[in-house]
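Human: For the file, kindly provide a plain-text protein record giving the amino acid sequence and the C-alpha coordinates, at your earliest convenience.
Assistant:
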Amino acid sequence: MTAANQTLLFDDLGTREVQADFSGGTLSSDAGALLLRQVDRNLGLTQSLALCFGDARNQVFVDHSVAELLRQRVYGTALGYEDLNDHDRLRLDPLLAAACEKTDPLGQERFLPQHRGIALASPATLNRLELSNNKTTRCHKLPHDPARIEACLLKMGARCLPRHSREVILDLDAMGHRLHGGQEGRHFNAYYDDYCYLPLYAFAGPFPLWAQLRTAEHEAAHGTVAALEKIVPAIRKRCPNARVIVRADSGFGREEIMAWCESQPEVYYCLGLAKNAVLIEKLGRALARARARQCLSGAASVREFAEFEYCTHKSWSRSRRVIGKAEVMREGENPRFIVTNLPAGGFEEQEQKKGEEEEERTRFLPARLYEELYCARGDMENMLKQQVLDLKADRMSTHHLASNQFRLWEAMFAYLLLERLRTQGLAGTELEQATAGSVRLKLLKVAAQVRVSVRRVYVQMSSAYPLQELFRRCQRRLMAFPLWSD
Protein backbone atom coordinates (compact mmCIF):
# COMPACT_ATOMS: atom_id res chain seq x y z
CA MET A 1 0.00 0.00 0.00
CA THR A 2 1.35 3.41 -0.95
CA ALA A 3 1.52 6.30 1.49
CA ALA A 4 -1.25 8.07 -0.44
CA ASN A 5 -3.62 5.12 0.06
CA GLN A 6 -2.94 4.59 3.76
CA THR A 7 -6.22 5.09 5.62
CA LEU A 8 -6.47 7.70 8.36
CA LEU A 9 -9.05 6.83 11.02
CA PHE A 10 -10.98 9.45 12.96
CA ASP A 11 -13.64 9.17 15.66
CA ASP A 12 -16.82 7.50 14.47
CA LEU A 13 -19.82 9.56 13.37
CA GLY A 14 -22.70 7.74 14.98
CA THR A 15 -22.69 4.25 13.50
CA ARG A 16 -20.38 5.26 10.63
CA GLU A 17 -16.60 5.04 10.57
CA VAL A 18 -14.76 8.21 9.49
CA GLN A 19 -11.85 7.40 7.16
CA ALA A 20 -9.58 9.55 4.99
CA ASP A 21 -6.65 9.15 2.64
CA PHE A 22 -4.76 11.08 -0.05
CA SER A 23 -5.96 9.18 -3.10
CA GLY A 24 -8.32 11.85 -4.44
CA GLY A 25 -6.31 12.39 -7.60
CA THR A 26 -5.56 15.71 -9.29
CA LEU A 27 -7.25 18.12 -6.90
CA SER A 28 -6.56 21.80 -6.29
CA SER A 29 -7.56 24.24 -3.58
CA ASP A 30 -6.95 27.28 -5.82
CA ALA A 31 -9.51 27.22 -8.66
CA GLY A 32 -9.57 31.04 -8.50
CA ALA A 33 -6.16 31.01 -10.19
CA LEU A 34 -8.15 30.87 -13.45
CA LEU A 35 -9.55 34.31 -12.63
CA LEU A 36 -6.03 35.63 -12.04
CA ARG A 37 -5.00 34.22 -15.40
CA GLN A 38 -7.84 36.04 -17.13
CA VAL A 39 -6.99 39.34 -15.41
CA ASP A 40 -3.36 38.88 -16.42
CA ARG A 41 -4.30 38.20 -20.04
CA ASN A 42 -6.50 41.30 -20.09
CA LEU A 43 -3.77 43.47 -18.62
CA GLY A 44 -0.74 41.82 -20.26
CA LEU A 45 1.15 42.07 -16.99
CA THR A 46 3.42 39.03 -16.87
CA GLN A 47 4.00 39.12 -20.62
CA SER A 48 5.24 42.72 -20.33
CA LEU A 49 7.26 41.85 -17.25
CA ALA A 50 8.98 38.98 -19.07
CA LEU A 51 10.36 41.46 -21.60
CA CYS A 52 12.43 42.99 -18.78
CA PHE A 53 14.51 39.79 -18.52
CA GLY A 54 17.34 38.35 -20.51
CA ASP A 55 17.53 34.61 -21.14
CA ALA A 56 20.97 33.11 -21.77
CA ARG A 57 19.79 29.50 -21.38
CA ASN A 58 20.07 26.93 -24.15
CA GLN A 59 16.44 26.82 -25.24
CA VAL A 60 16.74 23.17 -26.29
CA PHE A 61 16.85 22.19 -22.62
CA VAL A 62 14.38 24.77 -21.28
CA ASP A 63 11.13 23.51 -19.75
CA HIS A 64 9.96 26.82 -18.25
CA SER A 65 9.93 30.12 -20.14
CA VAL A 66 10.58 33.36 -18.28
CA ALA A 67 6.90 34.32 -18.60
CA GLU A 68 5.84 30.97 -17.08
CA LEU A 69 8.26 31.38 -14.18
CA LEU A 70 6.95 34.87 -13.49
CA ARG A 71 3.35 33.71 -13.62
CA GLN A 72 4.09 30.89 -11.20
CA ARG A 73 5.73 33.29 -8.75
CA VAL A 74 3.27 36.19 -9.04
CA TYR A 75 0.15 34.01 -9.02
CA GLY A 76 1.58 32.05 -6.10
CA THR A 77 2.07 35.27 -4.13
CA ALA A 78 -1.49 36.39 -4.91
CA LEU A 79 -2.78 32.98 -3.77
CA GLY A 80 -0.93 33.21 -0.45
CA TYR A 81 2.22 31.21 -1.22
CA GLU A 82 4.82 33.89 -0.54
CA ASP A 83 7.71 31.54 0.25
CA LEU A 84 9.67 29.76 -2.46
CA ASN A 85 9.55 26.56 -0.40
CA ASP A 86 5.77 26.48 -0.95
CA HIS A 87 6.41 25.64 -4.60
CA ASP A 88 7.99 22.31 -3.70
CA ARG A 89 4.45 20.91 -3.56
CA LEU A 90 2.64 23.65 -5.46
CA ARG A 91 4.52 22.68 -8.63
CA LEU A 92 2.41 19.51 -8.75
CA ASP A 93 -0.86 21.47 -9.07
CA PRO A 94 -2.19 21.00 -12.64
CA LEU A 95 -4.67 23.86 -12.25
CA LEU A 96 -1.94 26.36 -11.38
CA ALA A 97 0.06 24.95 -14.32
CA ALA A 98 -2.89 25.62 -16.62
CA ALA A 99 -3.22 29.14 -15.22
CA CYS A 100 0.49 29.69 -15.95
CA GLU A 101 -0.18 28.83 -19.62
CA LYS A 102 1.46 25.40 -19.42
CA THR A 103 0.15 23.55 -22.47
CA ASP A 104 1.21 20.33 -20.72
CA PRO A 105 -0.39 20.87 -17.28
CA LEU A 106 0.46 17.34 -16.11
CA GLY A 107 4.14 17.69 -17.04
CA GLN A 108 4.25 14.50 -19.10
CA GLU A 109 6.35 16.03 -21.90
CA ARG A 110 9.23 17.46 -19.88
CA PHE A 111 12.77 17.09 -21.18
CA LEU A 112 14.21 14.93 -18.38
CA PRO A 113 12.40 11.67 -17.51
CA GLN A 114 12.78 12.21 -13.76
CA HIS A 115 10.86 15.52 -14.06
CA ARG A 116 7.88 14.09 -15.89
CA GLY A 117 4.66 14.39 -13.93
CA ILE A 118 5.78 17.73 -12.47
CA ALA A 119 4.54 20.60 -14.61
CA LEU A 120 5.92 23.67 -12.81
CA ALA A 121 9.34 24.92 -11.75
CA SER A 122 11.07 23.97 -8.53
CA PRO A 123 11.89 26.42 -5.72
CA ALA A 124 15.55 26.29 -6.80
CA THR A 125 14.68 27.42 -10.33
CA LEU A 126 12.53 30.27 -9.03
CA ASN A 127 15.31 31.23 -6.64
CA ARG A 128 17.80 31.48 -9.52
CA LEU A 129 15.33 33.75 -11.30
CA GLU A 130 15.34 36.13 -8.33
CA LEU A 131 19.09 35.92 -7.70
CA SER A 132 20.38 36.12 -11.28
CA ASN A 133 21.36 39.79 -10.95
CA ASN A 134 23.58 38.90 -8.00
CA LYS A 135 25.24 35.76 -9.33
CA THR A 136 27.67 35.25 -12.21
CA THR A 137 27.73 31.44 -12.26
CA ARG A 138 26.59 29.30 -15.16
CA CYS A 139 23.39 28.56 -13.21
CA HIS A 140 22.22 32.18 -13.19
CA LYS A 141 21.27 33.12 -16.73
CA LEU A 142 18.08 35.14 -16.24
CA PRO A 143 19.19 38.69 -15.40
CA HIS A 144 16.58 41.44 -15.26
CA ASP A 145 16.81 45.15 -15.99
CA PRO A 146 15.64 47.01 -12.84
CA ALA A 147 14.93 50.20 -14.75
CA ARG A 148 12.65 48.34 -17.16
CA ILE A 149 10.76 46.58 -14.34
CA GLU A 150 10.35 49.92 -12.58
CA ALA A 151 8.95 51.38 -15.82
CA CYS A 152 6.74 48.30 -16.34
CA LEU A 153 5.07 48.72 -12.94
CA LEU A 154 4.59 52.42 -13.62
CA LYS A 155 3.09 51.73 -17.04
CA MET A 156 0.79 48.97 -15.78
CA GLY A 157 -0.45 51.07 -12.87
CA ALA A 158 -0.96 54.21 -14.96
CA ARG A 159 -2.85 52.20 -17.58
CA CYS A 160 -5.55 51.54 -14.96
CA LEU A 161 -6.32 55.26 -14.59
CA PRO A 162 -9.37 56.57 -16.47
CA ARG A 163 -7.96 58.23 -19.58
CA HIS A 164 -10.17 61.33 -19.31
CA SER A 165 -9.46 62.03 -15.65
CA ARG A 166 -9.30 65.72 -14.83
CA GLU A 167 -7.50 65.16 -11.54
CA VAL A 168 -5.19 62.46 -10.19
CA ILE A 169 -4.22 62.35 -6.52
CA LEU A 170 -0.79 60.78 -6.07
CA ASP A 171 -0.18 59.35 -2.60
CA LEU A 172 3.38 58.88 -1.34
CA ASP A 173 4.49 57.01 1.75
CA ALA A 174 7.46 55.19 3.24
CA MET A 175 7.16 52.02 5.27
CA GLY A 176 9.77 50.27 7.38
CA HIS A 177 10.31 46.58 6.53
CA ARG A 178 12.17 44.97 9.39
CA LEU A 179 15.09 42.63 8.66
CA HIS A 180 16.01 39.49 10.53
CA GLY A 181 19.42 38.69 9.12
CA GLY A 182 22.55 40.14 7.58
CA GLN A 183 20.95 41.49 4.42
CA GLU A 184 22.89 43.85 2.19
CA GLY A 185 22.21 47.48 3.11
CA ARG A 186 20.66 46.75 6.51
CA HIS A 187 20.68 49.80 8.73
CA PHE A 188 19.31 50.62 12.17
CA ASN A 189 16.40 53.06 12.03
CA ALA A 190 15.59 54.84 15.28
CA TYR A 191 11.93 55.40 14.38
CA TYR A 192 11.29 51.65 13.94
CA ASP A 193 13.84 50.79 16.64
CA ASP A 194 15.20 47.98 14.50
CA TYR A 195 17.26 47.11 11.42
CA CYS A 196 15.13 47.58 8.34
CA TYR A 197 14.68 48.76 4.77
CA LEU A 198 12.62 51.89 4.07
CA PRO A 199 10.89 51.48 0.68
CA LEU A 200 9.12 54.37 -1.06
CA TYR A 201 5.60 53.64 -2.31
CA ALA A 202 3.35 55.63 -4.63
CA PHE A 203 -0.32 54.96 -5.40
CA ALA A 204 -2.82 56.79 -7.58
CA GLY A 205 -6.10 55.89 -5.92
CA PRO A 206 -6.02 52.08 -5.56
CA PHE A 207 -3.45 51.65 -8.33
CA PRO A 208 0.21 50.97 -7.40
CA LEU A 209 2.72 52.99 -9.41
CA TRP A 210 6.00 52.84 -7.52
CA ALA A 211 7.82 50.54 -5.08
CA GLN A 212 11.45 51.53 -4.57
CA LEU A 213 13.46 49.60 -2.02
CA ARG A 214 15.77 51.93 -0.09
CA THR A 215 18.15 51.50 2.79
CA ALA A 216 17.07 53.05 6.08
CA GLU A 217 19.85 55.55 6.78
CA HIS A 218 17.97 58.28 4.88
CA GLU A 219 14.77 60.12 5.76
CA ALA A 220 11.38 59.16 4.30
CA ALA A 221 11.52 61.79 1.54
CA HIS A 222 14.90 60.69 0.18
CA GLY A 223 14.76 60.26 -3.61
CA THR A 224 11.15 61.46 -3.89
CA VAL A 225 11.85 64.17 -6.48
CA ALA A 226 13.65 61.67 -8.74
CA ALA A 227 10.64 59.36 -8.45
CA LEU A 228 8.18 62.17 -9.20
CA GLU A 229 10.15 63.07 -12.31
CA LYS A 230 9.21 59.63 -13.67
CA ILE A 231 5.75 59.16 -12.17
CA VAL A 232 4.17 62.47 -13.19
CA PRO A 233 5.07 62.14 -16.92
CA ALA A 234 3.63 58.60 -16.90
CA ILE A 235 0.37 59.91 -15.44
CA ARG A 236 0.32 62.73 -17.99
CA LYS A 237 0.88 60.29 -20.83
CA ARG A 238 -2.17 58.32 -19.73
CA CYS A 239 -4.28 61.34 -18.65
CA PRO A 240 -3.05 64.33 -20.67
CA ASN A 241 -5.63 66.75 -19.25
CA ALA A 242 -5.21 65.83 -15.60
CA ARG A 243 -3.73 67.96 -12.87
CA VAL A 244 -1.71 66.01 -10.30
CA ILE A 245 -2.03 66.54 -6.54
CA VAL A 246 0.85 65.06 -4.53
CA ARG A 247 -0.33 64.02 -1.07
CA ALA A 248 1.84 62.73 1.79
CA ASP A 249 2.51 63.02 5.51
CA SER A 250 4.94 65.36 7.26
CA GLY A 251 7.92 63.19 6.37
CA PHE A 252 7.56 64.57 2.83
CA GLY A 253 7.04 68.24 3.74
CA ARG A 254 10.43 69.20 2.33
CA GLU A 255 11.57 72.22 0.33
CA GLU A 256 12.87 70.21 -2.63
CA ILE A 257 9.53 68.40 -3.10
CA MET A 258 7.42 71.55 -2.80
CA ALA A 259 9.74 73.56 -5.03
CA TRP A 260 9.68 70.84 -7.70
CA CYS A 261 5.87 70.72 -7.69
CA GLU A 262 5.70 74.53 -7.91
CA SER A 263 7.99 74.47 -10.93
CA GLN A 264 5.72 72.05 -12.84
CA PRO A 265 2.53 72.99 -14.69
CA GLU A 266 -0.64 71.67 -13.04
CA VAL A 267 1.21 69.88 -10.23
CA TYR A 268 0.04 70.66 -6.69
CA TYR A 269 0.86 69.34 -3.25
CA CYS A 270 -0.92 68.79 0.05
CA LEU A 271 1.68 67.69 2.59
CA GLY A 272 1.83 67.26 6.34
CA LEU A 273 3.98 69.76 8.20
CA ALA A 274 5.76 68.94 11.45
CA LYS A 275 4.67 71.24 14.27
CA ASN A 276 7.02 73.66 15.99
CA ALA A 277 6.76 76.55 18.44
CA VAL A 278 6.22 79.18 15.73
CA LEU A 279 3.38 77.24 14.10
CA ILE A 280 1.67 76.59 17.43
CA GLU A 281 1.93 80.29 18.29
CA LYS A 282 0.22 81.20 14.99
CA LEU A 283 -2.54 78.74 15.88
CA GLY A 284 -3.01 80.29 19.34
CA ARG A 285 -6.32 82.10 18.69
CA ALA A 286 -7.87 79.04 17.07
CA LEU A 287 -6.79 76.89 20.04
CA ALA A 288 -8.34 79.42 22.42
CA ARG A 289 -11.63 79.31 20.52
CA ALA A 290 -11.58 75.51 20.56
CA ARG A 291 -10.96 75.45 24.32
CA ALA A 292 -13.84 77.85 24.90
CA ARG A 293 -16.20 75.81 22.73
CA GLN A 294 -15.26 72.61 24.54
CA CYS A 295 -15.88 74.20 27.95
CA LEU A 296 -19.33 75.40 26.84
CA SER A 297 -20.38 72.23 25.05
CA GLY A 298 -18.63 69.55 27.10
CA ALA A 299 -17.81 67.73 23.85
CA ALA A 300 -15.08 65.10 23.84
CA SER A 301 -13.33 66.82 20.93
CA VAL A 302 -13.62 70.28 19.33
CA ARG A 303 -11.85 71.47 16.19
CA GLU A 304 -11.10 74.89 14.80
CA PHE A 305 -9.10 75.64 11.66
CA ALA A 306 -6.84 78.55 10.77
CA GLU A 307 -5.01 79.53 7.61
CA PHE A 308 -1.86 81.65 7.37
CA GLU A 309 1.31 82.24 5.38
CA TYR A 310 4.45 80.70 6.79
CA CYS A 311 8.14 80.48 5.90
CA THR A 312 10.99 78.88 7.79
CA HIS A 313 14.10 80.89 8.62
CA LYS A 314 16.47 78.92 6.36
CA SER A 315 15.12 75.77 4.73
CA TRP A 316 12.27 77.21 2.65
CA SER A 317 12.78 79.46 -0.34
CA ARG A 318 9.42 81.24 -0.03
CA SER A 319 6.28 81.69 2.09
CA ARG A 320 3.59 79.07 1.62
CA ARG A 321 -0.03 78.47 2.52
CA VAL A 322 -0.37 76.56 5.80
CA ILE A 323 -3.57 75.13 7.31
CA GLY A 324 -3.61 74.53 11.05
CA LYS A 325 -6.01 72.23 12.87
CA ALA A 326 -6.62 73.39 16.44
CA GLU A 327 -8.11 70.35 18.15
CA VAL A 328 -8.84 70.21 21.86
CA MET A 329 -9.70 66.86 23.41
CA ARG A 330 -10.27 65.73 26.97
CA GLU A 331 -6.75 64.33 26.95
CA GLY A 332 -5.28 67.68 25.84
CA GLU A 333 -4.48 69.72 22.76
CA ASN A 334 -3.72 68.08 19.40
CA PRO A 335 -2.54 70.71 16.89
CA ARG A 336 -1.73 69.54 13.35
CA PHE A 337 -0.54 71.34 10.22
CA ILE A 338 -0.48 70.89 6.46
CA VAL A 339 1.19 72.95 3.74
CA THR A 340 -0.26 73.28 0.25
CA ASN A 341 -0.26 75.30 -2.95
CA LEU A 342 -3.86 74.41 -3.78
CA PRO A 343 -5.89 77.58 -4.43
CA ALA A 344 -8.30 78.54 -1.64
CA GLY A 345 -10.99 79.39 -4.19
CA GLY A 346 -10.71 76.14 -6.09
CA PHE A 347 -9.99 75.66 -9.78
CA GLU A 348 -11.81 77.54 -12.48
CA GLU A 349 -13.18 74.81 -14.72
CA GLN A 350 -14.36 75.82 -18.17
CA GLU A 351 -17.25 73.37 -18.10
CA GLN A 352 -19.06 72.77 -14.84
CA LYS A 353 -22.47 71.32 -14.26
CA LYS A 354 -25.02 73.34 -12.36
CA GLY A 355 -24.36 73.11 -8.63
CA GLU A 356 -20.73 72.07 -9.02
CA GLU A 357 -19.38 75.63 -9.11
CA GLU A 358 -20.10 76.25 -5.41
CA GLU A 359 -18.70 72.83 -4.53
CA GLU A 360 -15.45 73.67 -6.33
CA ARG A 361 -15.15 77.08 -4.64
CA THR A 362 -15.39 75.61 -1.14
CA ARG A 363 -13.42 72.43 -1.77
CA PHE A 364 -10.04 73.79 -0.65
CA LEU A 365 -11.20 75.90 2.29
CA PRO A 366 -9.28 74.99 5.47
CA ALA A 367 -11.69 72.53 7.15
CA ARG A 368 -12.60 70.63 3.98
CA LEU A 369 -9.04 70.62 2.69
CA TYR A 370 -7.78 69.03 5.87
CA GLU A 371 -10.62 66.65 6.69
CA GLU A 372 -11.73 65.56 3.22
CA LEU A 373 -8.59 65.77 1.09
CA TYR A 374 -5.58 65.36 3.37
CA CYS A 375 -7.06 62.83 5.81
CA ALA A 376 -8.18 60.64 2.90
CA ARG A 377 -4.55 59.60 2.50
CA GLY A 378 -5.34 57.00 5.14
CA ASP A 379 -6.71 54.85 2.30
CA MET A 380 -3.17 54.39 1.00
CA GLU A 381 -2.01 53.22 4.42
CA ASN A 382 -4.69 50.52 4.25
CA MET A 383 -3.25 49.41 0.90
CA LEU A 384 0.21 49.20 2.42
CA LYS A 385 -1.20 47.07 5.22
CA GLN A 386 -2.54 44.70 2.58
CA GLN A 387 0.92 44.59 1.02
CA VAL A 388 2.43 43.46 4.31
CA LEU A 389 -0.36 41.42 5.91
CA ASP A 390 -1.86 39.75 2.81
CA LEU A 391 1.03 39.59 0.33
CA LYS A 392 4.05 39.56 2.68
CA ALA A 393 5.81 42.34 0.76
CA ASP A 394 8.16 42.74 3.73
CA ARG A 395 9.54 39.20 3.32
CA MET A 396 13.06 40.43 2.50
CA SER A 397 14.77 37.12 3.14
CA THR A 398 17.49 37.07 0.47
CA HIS A 399 20.93 38.52 1.16
CA HIS A 400 21.13 40.90 -1.78
CA LEU A 401 19.42 44.28 -2.05
CA ALA A 402 18.65 43.75 -5.76
CA SER A 403 16.84 40.44 -5.22
CA ASN A 404 14.90 41.87 -2.28
CA GLN A 405 13.86 44.74 -4.55
CA PHE A 406 12.64 42.18 -7.07
CA ARG A 407 10.59 40.44 -4.38
CA LEU A 408 9.03 43.77 -3.47
CA TRP A 409 8.06 44.24 -7.13
CA GLU A 410 6.59 40.73 -7.25
CA ALA A 411 4.28 41.60 -4.35
CA MET A 412 3.26 44.83 -6.08
CA PHE A 413 2.44 43.03 -9.33
CA ALA A 414 0.43 40.45 -7.37
CA TYR A 415 -1.46 43.30 -5.68
CA LEU A 416 -2.13 44.90 -9.07
CA LEU A 417 -3.67 41.64 -10.33
CA LEU A 418 -5.90 41.41 -7.25
CA GLU A 419 -6.87 45.07 -7.56
CA ARG A 420 -7.86 44.63 -11.21
CA LEU A 421 -9.80 41.50 -10.26
CA ARG A 422 -11.65 43.53 -7.64
CA THR A 423 -12.27 46.52 -9.92
CA GLN A 424 -13.18 44.70 -13.12
CA GLY A 425 -14.85 41.59 -11.78
CA LEU A 426 -16.31 42.51 -8.40
CA ALA A 427 -17.63 46.07 -8.83
CA GLY A 428 -21.03 46.43 -7.20
CA THR A 429 -20.70 43.13 -5.29
CA GLU A 430 -20.11 42.32 -1.64
CA LEU A 431 -16.35 42.09 -2.33
CA GLU A 432 -16.05 45.45 -4.09
CA GLN A 433 -14.20 47.00 -1.14
CA ALA A 434 -12.69 43.79 0.23
CA THR A 435 -9.03 43.51 1.11
CA ALA A 436 -6.67 41.38 -0.95
CA GLY A 437 -6.78 38.73 1.77
CA SER A 438 -10.58 38.59 1.75
CA VAL A 439 -10.71 38.36 -2.05
CA ARG A 440 -8.24 35.49 -1.91
CA LEU A 441 -10.10 33.63 0.84
CA LYS A 442 -13.60 34.03 -0.60
CA LEU A 443 -12.99 33.95 -4.34
CA LEU A 444 -9.68 32.25 -5.11
CA LYS A 445 -9.60 29.45 -2.53
CA VAL A 446 -12.04 27.11 -4.26
CA ALA A 447 -11.60 23.32 -4.21
CA ALA A 448 -11.63 21.68 -7.62
CA GLN A 449 -10.87 18.43 -9.40
CA VAL A 450 -8.80 18.79 -12.57
CA ARG A 451 -9.08 16.39 -15.47
CA VAL A 452 -6.76 16.79 -18.44
CA SER A 453 -7.49 15.14 -21.77
CA VAL A 454 -6.34 15.67 -25.34
CA ARG A 455 -9.18 18.10 -26.03
CA ARG A 456 -9.68 20.01 -22.79
CA VAL A 457 -8.74 20.86 -19.24
CA TYR A 458 -11.90 20.18 -17.24
CA VAL A 459 -12.06 21.90 -13.83
CA GLN A 460 -14.87 20.66 -11.58
CA MET A 461 -15.26 23.03 -8.67
CA SER A 462 -16.81 22.15 -5.35
CA SER A 463 -20.60 21.95 -5.41
CA ALA A 464 -20.60 23.21 -1.80
CA TYR A 465 -18.77 26.46 -2.67
CA PRO A 466 -21.03 29.18 -1.20
CA LEU A 467 -20.24 32.02 -3.63
CA GLN A 468 -20.90 30.26 -6.93
CA GLU A 469 -23.02 33.04 -8.41
CA LEU A 470 -20.40 35.68 -7.49
CA PHE A 471 -17.69 33.56 -9.12
CA ARG A 472 -19.81 33.21 -12.28
CA ARG A 473 -20.51 36.93 -12.43
CA CYS A 474 -16.83 37.77 -11.99
CA GLN A 475 -15.85 35.32 -14.74
CA ARG A 476 -18.39 36.77 -17.16
CA ARG A 477 -17.18 40.31 -16.57
CA LEU A 478 -13.52 39.40 -17.01
CA MET A 479 -14.22 37.53 -20.24
CA ALA A 480 -15.97 40.62 -21.62
CA PHE A 481 -12.80 42.71 -21.40
CA PRO A 482 -10.56 42.76 -24.48
CA LEU A 483 -7.24 40.94 -24.27
CA TRP A 484 -4.09 43.01 -23.97
CA SER A 485 -2.20 43.83 -27.14
CA ASP A 486 1.00 45.87 -27.25
